[in-house]
Amino acid sequence: MLRFVLTLCVAAAGTVARAEVNIQQITSPEGINAWVVEEPSIPFTALEIRMRGGASLDEDGKRGAVNLMTALIEEGSGDMDAQAFQRELDALAASFSFRVFDDTMSISARFLTENQDAALALLKQALTQPRFDQDAIDRVRAQVISGIASDEKNPNRIAGAYFDGAAFAGHPYATSIDGTVESVGALSQADLFAAHRNTLTRDQIFVSAVGDISADEIGPILDDLLGDLPAEGPPAVGDVDFGLAGGVTVIDYDTPQSVALFGHAGIERDDDDFFAAYILNSILGGSGFESRLMNEVREERGLTYGIRSYLVPKFHAEMWIGQVASANATIAEAIEVTRDVWTGLATDGVTEEELAVTKTYLTGEYPLRFDGNAEIAEIMVGMQMIGLPPEYVVNRNDYIEAVTIDDVNRVAATYLRPDDLHFVVVGKPVGLESTD
Known about the structure:
By secondary structure, the chain is of the alpha+beta class. It is built from 15 helices and 14 strands. It starts with a strand and ends in a 9-residue tail after the last strand.
């Protein structure tokens, strides 16, 4: 068993609060790795389980199967139908959450110490003995299809669907994890059992637990909870290059305000320059009202209520993207100013003052993320998935502080590519036409 103690210091109202988080790395008798933080002061535990693969494991022609399967896990298992399962969960004062994303499936469990055994038994039943009753399938399928139909009328969703489809053609990233009305409508009970078998496998598991639970007991607990899942799943999907060239795509839609999703290829999370890029993105559009995009597009010109930029390092592709909405008559100007800001940073870089302010913000807000068992558990399991060691939480702010202005400006010149920006605009923009 490996132990790592981190001390978080939080300055507030002229004082410094210190909190220690003792991360213990354990391996269960059956080989399941986990990070554990023992916190017995409150009789409550947060358990986080993630499995790599997620919706990218949808089989050909079955898009949306993993998403629908995930939504049905709490709709009955073992000898309990959906109503009986929910009654038992409520009686235990426990909560389970099952979510799926492009590359991952997450399972969150929260339970009281006095009900730990019963809550874990119920969770095991949900994970290993799903029923997928036809009445539950029909009901949840209808909800999913209703959501898909709603998305088809949502300008932001329309922009995202086109952007992803053009950027990642032929890859699961190109389509929504929800699937289409047709693909979801055609899913059978057998498809859902297959999705369950492919997605919930022991070889892709990452686990963290925080609360009134000991490192000594967590190993046998995990073996019992997860040991009956299949040992291995199907091969992971391959990487994909960002395939959308610079330009503008206008999608005509009757609305008084146009929305735009824009971006180009990004940077990998494990790249040596990632921290410099992270700081740069905060200055560009990631730090709210302090960012250049917000200042130039909103504060100086009043073209939008908000504009943001994001680094998106997925498991199989990377993007640097942003979003903005503006009136049809002003969206063209908002796009022009956005390009200018992108170009200015790529050409001239950031200032010493911008760098100092951003470092202060990023290092100051980081300890505030560790404000509860559930939050710490989510952070730890996320770190495991991207290969970060426990000591990262102590060293992270040092990594931020070590970034120099030369680092940031070199990254800006290398990774900000204004000519490669592609804007997908949904609305009736004035003075703006598609270039493709």
